[in-house]
Design goal:
The chain has 149 residues and is mainly alpha-helical. It has one domain (7-143): Butyryl-CoA Dehydrogenase, subunit A, domain 3. It is 73% helix and 3% strand. It is built from 5 helices and 2 strands; from the N terminus they run αββαααα. Strands 1-2 form a two-stranded antiparallel ribbon. Helix 1 packs parallel to helix 3 (80-105) and helix 2 runs antiparallel to helix 3 (80-105).
Amino acid sequence: MALGALAPSRIAIAAQSIGIAERAFELGLDYARERQVFGHSVADFQNSRFVFADCRSELDQAWLLKLRGARLLDRGVHIRGEASMAKLVASETCGRVVDRMLQLHGGNGYSREYEIERLYRDARVMRIFEGTSEVQREVIARDLLGSAT
């Protein structure tokens, strides 16, 4: 029963993770458009565009998993596995997106003058709250295999 109560919290952590990553993504886009390197904006470089495309795709995937879990939760469906999938994917995506956006900021990313520095710290704990990523993988596997152990 106690483990079943974790599902709503895991959906909430997924939502929080997505929020952190979305803000980092916005900051990265703004920075890349403004920052000039070698006479071009950072956004002009193909690698930067690929990073943004990958991040947007991953964020939308995480959002869809979180939305599915929330919808099932609202319908009263037992969602232990779905909640763990949403939390796992969203928190891992958050870590990757924030890391990539900090990378685009270069050395400025570590400066407290830039919001990305705080988001970088905040993103890390999302993979720990309400069960680590490893715990989520175990819950998902048990759910798939029908194992209670």
